[in-house]
Design brief:
By secondary structure, the protein is of the alpha+beta class. It has three helices and three strands. The longest helix is centred in the middle third of the chain and has 38 residues.
C-alpha cells in the first residue's frame, strides 16, 4: 500500500515536471526560430504520451503483482483485510494442543515469507511421500 502511494507520488511529480517544462521548451523554440516551434511541441506531446503509456503499463504490472499476491495468500489460507489503514493478511487456526482458535495477521512482506515457507514444507512432504512410494 505504501509503495503504491510512493509510486503515485513519483508519477505525479514527473507529470508535473513535464507540464512545467513544456511551456519553457515552447518559449525557447519560439525564440530560436518561429517555423521550428511546432516540432518541439509535437515531441513534447509524444514524450507525454510515452510517459502516460509507461505509467499505465507500470500500474498494470503492479496490479497484476498484487492480484497474484492475493491469490497466493488465499490459497495459503489467508484473508486480506484492512487493519488500521494497512492491508494485512489474516488467518485463523487452532494451535496444536489447544481448542481455541488463534488469529494471526501479517503484512505483505511477512505473508510473502510465510507463503514461501508453506510451499517449502509442502514440497518436503511431497518429496517424502515420493521417496516412500519408491521404497515400497
Amino acid at each position: 500500500m505504501t509503495s503504491s502511494r510512493l509510486h503515485m507520488a513519483f508519477l505525479t511529480a514527473c507529470v508535473t515536471a513535464l507540464a512545467a517544462l513544456a511551456p519553457a521548451q515552447r518559449a525557447a523554440g519560439q525564440q530560436a526560430a518561429a517555423p521550428s516551434a511546432s516540432p518541439p511541441a509535437q515531441a513534447t506531446a509524444a514524450d507525454s504520451k510515452a510517459a502516460d503509456t509507461q505509467a499505465a503499463s507500470a500500474a498494470a504490472a503492479q496490479k497484476k503483482e498484487e492480484d497474484l499476491l492475493v491469490r497466493d495468500a488465499r490459497n495459503a489460507g489467508f484473508k486480506p483485510e484492512i487493519i488500521r489503514g494497512n492491508r494485512m493478511f489474516c488467518r485463523t487456526a487452532t494451535e496444536l494442543g489447544s481448542s481455541f482458535p488463534v488469529r494471526t495477521c501479517y503484512n505483505e512482506e511477512q505473508v510473502k515469507v510465510k507463503i514461501q515457507e508453506y510451499q517449502a514444507q509442502r514440497q518436503q512432504l511431497e518429496n517424502m511421500r515420493n521417496i516412500g512410494s519408491v521404497v515400497h
